[in-house]
Amino acid sequence: AANRLDAAKQCTPDQFQCTNGQCVSTAFVCDGDSDCSDDSDEASCPKPTCSSSSFQCNDSVCVPTQWSCDGDADCPDGSDEWPQNCVGRLPEKTQVGCGVHDFQCENGECVHGTWRCDRGNDCSDHSDEFNCSLPTCLPDEFQCNDGICIHGGRQCDRVPDCRDLSDEIDCHTGDRFTRAWPSRLFCAAVRKMCLTGNGGCSHSCNNLKVGYNCSCHPGYSLNTDKKTCADIDECAEADTCTQTCTNLPGSYKCECKKGYQVDPVSKTCRAESGTIPTLYFTNRHEVRKMTVDRSEYVRLIPQLKNAVALDMDMPKKMIFWSDLSLKKIYSSKLDVAGNSHYHSEVIGSGIEAPEGIAVDWIHGNIYWTDSVLKTISVATTDGSKRKILITEDLEKPRAITVDPVNNFMYWTDWGDEAKIEKSGLNGGDRVALVTDNIMWPNGITLDMVNQRLYWVDSKMHTLSSIGVNGESRHSLIVSEDKLAHPLSLTVFEDRVFWTDITSSAVFSADRRTGNDITQLAADLDHPEDIVLYHDLKQPIGINSCTGSRGENGGCEFLCLPAPQINHRSPKYTCACPDHMTMGSRKRTCVTGKNQTSPLLPPKAPTAAPTATTTAATKKDTTTSASQQGTQDGSIVFSAVSGNRLAASPEEAHLSHPVALYVVLPILVMSLLVFGAMWVWRHWRLKNTNTIHFDNPVYQKTTEDEMHICRNGSEGYVYPQRQMVSMDDIDVA
């Protein structure tokens, strides 16, 4: 791999060939940054001069004149906003204030107020650590790395008490135990235990100077009884294999997914064919392109105001980016992205801080976060339809990534309660995946092949991974040097790539172990988002919204894929614009009050008190409405489209002939039933005898009924369980 990195190649006319054979964009030559690894692009460079339409920064960098004195520091040294260069020119924009619980850095950035004077440089200008005085801890206290004092007994108690977790670093976690020494007689007997029944060991029995112990063959571990052995499931450990892991008795086997093959040297899975893996990353005023072997390094999109977030639709060869200063999201075809005439405005209003974007390449949607509005939104990739999906319990959402094969999305939130969350692409089934040992989560990316999430934490200086269901969390890199302030990352094959704004560089490392950290690009100007382009990066999936129901799934507005939790899960749900709600059929949109609530009884007619029949009608249905009424007439609705019910029924006009035919038979039947009831009651009273008597014990007069039933053969017969004693009857 090292030989490939500096391999010479034929450069294109718009590229400069470094002395070591690398190809970089001619725009990188003599720009003050060493883009060739041998610095040959900056050798023998004259002092730069800017055109009449550009502003020359104090460090000789040229930026468009319209960028000067606009409230944004576009020069690397900020000289385009210096007061002496902006005399008589007021900034066109005002700086957005920070939250009440935030600290505002001198350069305008906002960080948590609790991060002030904690010995960590959280502001890019380090102003959060200016004029700080740290407390002096008592002799029996432990001082955390951020200066906070805790009781000394809390150090290494396996419970983090410092905000930076420094009280649990470099702690011995092994079990402590003492062992009583047996007598010589007992030792002699123990030494012979391995000769009898292998000492009870299922694998190996080892005689020691004092006693014996059992051990297991490779791939097995001792059970709690310290004698029997059990197979080790190596596949339960995250990243044992680069892709598929199969556990075997005492061993395991690594395999590769379709489109990949085992590299005979590294024993990892490599793409069988396709394009050369290429990195695309934002560099404030531009988007750059670099192959992972560094054989090609060019500027793809120049002259951007403040490019922050980035993503791609690789099957369609489209690139999307957000501009934080212009508060817009753009797109372009890859092959013409360098020409601003081919840039399309996807979202041009209603956003404040689009710091994370993610493209659903299967269903044709784009998702973005807004840390100022505290929302997550979705739109079609052309921007014609959009909707705010999530507004609750969001503080400072940052990065976002999607899985349109299983219909999930994942995002980071670095608010007071920092977390990583997951939900369906329709905003449903939301759940928090990471809530502990997390402080400033920035970039997040998904390894589609292994279904693992990777993220960077700029406060804890870590790069970690976790399963998409919150299982098998693993810390790969903990380094304040290589992860000073990481912002974004991406993964492919066995490598992970990330940007760091403090180091102004792009790095890569082994995504399983965190080893082999390599710097790929340096001397950058605020690098933020990064994506990797390859044919296997975005697998082809099924768009359920273009199935048997036709285009857009039969939805009037947006068709959003639903999370695939099990085989019974719906494939998609329909969504409406923010100012509208779903209609009763869950496909059309209506204005005003939500129409999806349970059916309510229709209002009673005021013109006549007689019973009426109402019918529900709907304009967009093709099936006829069948009238159904309840017995008491309180709820009347109609069935439409099979077994669906139409809400908010409308009353039909009264039909007097129909009402007459219905009411008269009911009256006749009522009279017949009333007459029959009267005859039966009269007969019952006539054949009932009543006896009155006084109870001599309680002096209480009671009244009971004795029914004497006639029997044609035996005269009168008294009912069996009802007896009256004549002694209790007062005949006087």
TrEMBL record:
<feature type="disulfide bond">
    <location>
        <begin position="18"/>
        <end position="36"/>
    </location>
</feature>
<keyword id="KW-0472">Membrane</keyword>
<dbReference type="InterPro" id="IPR023415">
    <property type="entry name" value="LDLR_class-A_CS"/>
</dbReference>
<dbReference type="InterPro" id="IPR000742">
    <property type="entry name" value="EGF"/>
</dbReference>
<feature type="disulfide bond">
    <location>
        <begin position="30"/>
        <end position="45"/>
    </location>
</feature>
<dbReference type="GO" id="GO:0005509">
    <property type="term" value="F:calcium ion binding"/>
</dbReference>
<feature type="disulfide bond">
    <location>
        <begin position="117"/>
        <end position="132"/>
    </location>
</feature>
<dbReference type="GO" id="GO:0006898">
    <property type="term" value="P:receptor-mediated endocytosis"/>
</dbReference>
<keyword id="KW-1003">Cell membrane</keyword>
<feature type="disulfide bond">
    <location>
        <begin position="156"/>
        <end position="171"/>
    </location>
</feature>
<feature type="disulfide bond">
    <location>
        <begin position="11"/>
        <end position="23"/>
    </location>
</feature>
<feature type="disulfide bond">
    <location>
        <begin position="235"/>
        <end position="245"/>
    </location>
</feature>
<keyword id="KW-0732">Signal</keyword>
<dbReference type="GO" id="GO:0043235">
    <property type="term" value="C:receptor complex"/>
</dbReference>
<dbReference type="Pfam" id="PF00057">
    <property type="entry name" value="Ldl_recept_a"/>
</dbReference>
<keyword id="KW-0254">Endocytosis</keyword>
<dbReference type="InterPro" id="IPR026823">
    <property type="entry name" value="cEGF"/>
</dbReference>
<dbReference type="GO" id="GO:0042562">
    <property type="term" value="F:hormone binding"/>
</dbReference>
<keyword id="KW-0245">EGF-like domain</keyword>
<dbReference type="GO" id="GO:0005576">
    <property type="term" value="C:extracellular region"/>
</dbReference>
<keyword id="KW-0964">Secreted</keyword>
<keyword id="KW-0677">Repeat</keyword>
<feature type="disulfide bond">
    <location>
        <begin position="105"/>
        <end position="123"/>
    </location>
</feature>
<feature type="disulfide bond">
    <location>
        <begin position="50"/>
        <end position="62"/>
    </location>
</feature>
<dbReference type="InterPro" id="IPR000033">
    <property type="entry name" value="LDLR_classB_rpt"/>
</dbReference>
<dbReference type="InterPro" id="IPR036055">
    <property type="entry name" value="LDL_receptor-like_sf"/>
</dbReference>
<dbReference type="InterPro" id="IPR001881">
    <property type="entry name" value="EGF-like_Ca-bd_dom"/>
</dbReference>
<feature type="repeat" description="LDL-receptor class B">
    <location>
        <begin position="407"/>
        <end position="450"/>
    </location>
</feature>
<feature type="repeat" description="LDL-receptor class B">
    <location>
        <begin position="317"/>
        <end position="363"/>
    </location>
</feature>
<keyword id="KW-0325">Glycoprotein</keyword>
<dbReference type="GO" id="GO:0016324">
    <property type="term" value="C:apical plasma membrane"/>
</dbReference>
<feature type="disulfide bond">
    <location>
        <begin position="57"/>
        <end position="75"/>
    </location>
</feature>
<keyword id="KW-0675">Receptor</keyword>
<feature type="repeat" description="LDL-receptor class B">
    <location>
        <begin position="451"/>
        <end position="495"/>
    </location>
</feature>
<dbReference type="InterPro" id="IPR011042">
    <property type="entry name" value="6-blade_b-propeller_TolB-like"/>
</dbReference>
<feature type="disulfide bond">
    <location>
        <begin position="144"/>
        <end position="162"/>
    </location>
</feature>
<dbReference type="InterPro" id="IPR002172">
    <property type="entry name" value="LDrepeatLR_classA_rpt"/>
</dbReference>
<feature type="repeat" description="LDL-receptor class B">
    <location>
        <begin position="364"/>
        <end position="406"/>
    </location>
</feature>
<feature type="domain" description="EGF-like">
    <location>
        <begin position="231"/>
        <end position="270"/>
    </location>
</feature>
<comment type="similarity">
    <text>Belongs to the LDLR family.</text>
</comment>
<dbReference type="Pfam" id="PF12662">
    <property type="entry name" value="cEGF"/>
</dbReference>
<feature type="region of interest" description="Disordered">
    <location>
        <begin position="589"/>
        <end position="630"/>
    </location>
</feature>
